Amino acid sequence: MLQTLLTPAGEHLPETPWQSYPRPQFRREGWHNLNGRWDFAVTEGTEPPAEFPREILVPFCPESTLSGIGTHYGESQSLWYRRRFTLPEGFARDRVVLHIGAADQVLDAWCNGVPVGRHVGGYEAMTFDLTDALQSGENELLLRVRDDLRSTVQPYGKQVLQRGGMWYTPVSGVWQTVWLESLPPHAIPGLTIRADDTVALLDTGDPTQEGTVTVQTPRGPLTVPLHTGRAAVRPDAPRLWSPDDPYLYEFSIDTATDHVESYFALRRLTIGEAGGHPRLCLNGKPLFFHGVLDQGYYPDGLFTPAAPECYEADIHAMKELGFNTLRKHIKVEPEVYYYLCDKLGMIVFQDMVNNGDYAYWRDTVWPTLRFQRRRSDARMHRDEATRRAFLEGMEATVARLRNHPSICYWTIFNEGWGQFDSSAVYARLRALDDSRFIDSTSGWFRGGETDIDSRHIYYGPWTLRAGDKPLVLSEFGGCCLAVEGHRFNPDKSYGYSTSRSPAELQQALDRLYTQKVLPAVAKGLYGAIYTQLSDVEDEINGLLTYDRRVLKPDPGAMRALAGQLHQAFAASCNGKEPAHAGTQ
């Protein structure tokens, strides 16, 4: 029998969850949070319901415990949300817009009966202008969301109708913060930041914007002009961002009518050579990316943790174990997640969200048996609508997240899921962002254009040696430990090895890193992503339990392993044999 698990934050929810500002890298005064209790109804068709018999707690999806619903509805049904609100006194300036962080999968919105827009896609933010539909006094918002997992055209990640194993409970409806923003006349429309280790280039996207940019630096405030919507900031004695010193330059932009606040970091990503092998470098120095796979699922809120502080707790827990990297696995989080990674110094490998059909034997068993074979993917997953939806989702992901310095690495395709023409997709992504590393094919079906030689190993021999591309083990491990009282599914478990106690788990981790990973470091491995941060549903291979209440391994022992890895990597970069190299 499946168990209801709550994270510590899920035990004491406020009436208005997720109260923090939802867009930390483009902050503006004048916002109104619409999270909280909404009227909720489900219909078979697309016409509005006659009544709303239930309430749902936004921003939690209806499948989640925290929503108060706990049900996945039929794929042909419509989910309806209604909220009545009155704008705070003096709130409206020039325009009032509605923001929804994400809703899965097709959302239509009305304000006071007036259609204000539609959005397709389950992982992107959306904005609707409500100004002309607003009225004095009370207003009514009506949202309709439809989500059909029977179709694999739209990106869906690891959601399936029949959860189990490495596939999870589906998510539908609104799952990120809903909020209103008051815009002044001639508002700054947005902000794109391009930064290296010396300069940050700021672009509002509006050449009519004129004003000043004030940056807080270690040497005091620095003011530069904003001209034709752009500014270049060159701090003296730049303080570079890294996991050990995640320094953020806070700044504000002031024009005649608007004031926004943001931040940037200075850091440079390059590919160099050290010790006879290609390496990924941060700020000119080779870095070993010691990471974990982060699926971003929570037992009480599914896609959405009970509070943003849950992200912070996850990041701190992994740093306590000595990790410096999280691979955000085929999911796009609310922006506060990336802000916390920026602030706390956690590197992010960001996956694109997969779509297309999945076949277990074709996409998992066969390539595993053939040990990650090379093949052309030009004719894989040929449906044009599916390809177009993936590219649109990829472009939206880059547009939303590109300003975050913690994101150092994009992953396009994972284990062949929805994979097609990876060389062409690589070129398209490179045109969107030429400042980050790109892993075109994480796992197998390699052969197209990529910056990275990216492998997954859960079974069989380790035959890892760097070639002409930097070599990363982008998935491995998955050692299991069941912690009774903290299991979602006590009757079934999923993972890649079994331990009976925390001591056995630590021994398994010690063997894995010392006998497998360390020898590969000597042969040019620059990064290793362990599976995974937490248990997820049937999976019990997390370093944390699913409810985030038990940290399974010993922090001191894990930090010691991290120290050995970095020591071995430094020796490898200097062309020396590491002191603790085992055998593969």
Provide a short characterization of the protein structure.
17% of the residues lie in helices and 30% in strands.
Description:
The chain is α/β, with parallel strands linked by helices. It is built from seven helices and 32 strands. α1 (309-320) packs parallel to α2 (335-344). The longest helix is centred in the C-terminal third of the chain and has 21 residues, at 502-522. The protein starts with 30 loop residues before the first strand and ends in an 11-residue tail after the last helix. The model is unreliable at 580-584 (pLDDT under 50).
The neighbouring-strand order within the major sheet is 27-26-25-24-23-32-29-28
Radius of gyration: 24 Å
Q: What general outline do the C-alpha atoms trace?
A: globular
Q: What's the N-to-C terminus distance?
A: 40 Å
Instruction: Outline the biggest β-sheet.
Output: 8 strands, parallel
Overall mean confidence score, pLDDT: 95
Number of strands: 32
Determine the fraction of residues in helical runs and give it as a percent range.
Answer: 10-25%
Beta-strand residue percentage: 25-35%
Low-confidence stretches: 580-584
| Number of discrete helical segments | 7
Secondary structure class reads: alpha/beta
Give a quick set of tags describing it:
584 residues; alpha/beta
How is this fold's topology laid out?
Elements: E1 31-33, E2 36-43, E3 54-58, E4 78-86, E5 95-100, E6 103-104, E7 106-111, E8 114-120, E9 126-129, E10 138-146, E11 173-174, E12 178-183, E13 192-195, E14 200-203, E15 211-217, E16 220-226, E17 230-233, E18 249-255, E19 259-264, E20 269-274, E21 277-282, E22 285-286, E23 289-294, H1 309-320, E24 325-328, H2 335-344, E25 347-351, H3 360-369, H4 384-401, E26 407-414, H5 422-432, E27 437-442, E28 453-457, E29 471-477, E30 479-481, E31 497-499, H6 502-522, E32 525-531, H7 555-573
Parallel strand pairs: 23-24, 23-32, 24-25, 25-26, 26-27, 28-29, 29-32, 30-31
Antiparallel strand pairs: 1-12, 2-3, 2-4, 4-10, 5-9, 5-12, 6-11, 7-8, 7-10, 13-14, 14-17, 15-16, 15-18, 18-19, 20-21, 21-22
Helix pairs in contact: 1-2, 6-7
